[in-house]
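I'll show an entry:

:::
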Amino acid sequence: MPPEAFFERAWTRRELLRAGGVAGLAVTGAAVLGGARALPAFAADSKYKTVALPFSSDLYASPDPQRFSMILQRPTKGGIAYVSGPKVEVRFRGPGGDWTEFTKLSLDTEGLPKGRGVYREAFTFADAGDWKGQAKFPGGKTDFTFPLPATAAAPVPGDAAPRAASPTTTDSLGVNPICTRKPMCPLHSVSLSDVIGTGKPVAVLFATPALCTSAYCGPVLDEMLEIMTPYQDRVTFVHVDIYKSLSNATPAPTVQAWNLPSEPWLYGVDGAGIVTARLDTAFGKTEMTALFDGLVS
């Protein structure tokens, strides 16, 4: 019996932390904020079978290509083991349509936790409705379905970026701590409300190192701090942590203003305040560098 299709549900962050998964498979996917639609995991027919998990959190109907991401996981007696390295190909079938050809996904590992690379590629999902997908890799395959809404939850390229303020060292906006990285990162000196649309591009990373349920937030923030130096005179870099405190799951006001359905997110915004690119859930050096290059080209 093939794996069951994963199902549509609003997962809160606490549910994700609580969940032991279906048929022994942990619920990971995107680290989902309270009440948001996402792509949870699905049941496997074998307790120890490798499965491919869709990892994108805000796909929507569009004639433009979108980044689709995926990870491989294998349940073990000791917990979840990530699988990173095998060739993975995917195909899709839209509502009432035919299957596409299988396409090989690129694997990014640099700047990501060891053994936890992310597979990704750009695909066009033109029509809203229920989509089917199939991933194949050495020794197995995974069938899945996902509901595709007509519009995205969060800002997309071409949208005006929200001008909401972000917590800074001089105005926390009621967020405590404003940075859960240890030590605190240096990207909290300016507010997004003061830099977006002022002529200089902005790169803003929404990530919570201490509370990230997928454990990708800390590594992507660390990687951005490592690679941003050549761009700092031409791009303003800002980090926004996700939650108002360490003790509850209420999103910070900036996160609410951007209507982010998951964590982490990296946005590129041009000097006029228009979103140029976005990355979600897990992304490494290659994709971050490409986003920064796009801001200064």
In short: Residues 285-296 form the longest helix (12 residues). The helical segments are 13-18, 192-195, 217-227, 253-258, 285-296. The radius of gyration is 19 Å.
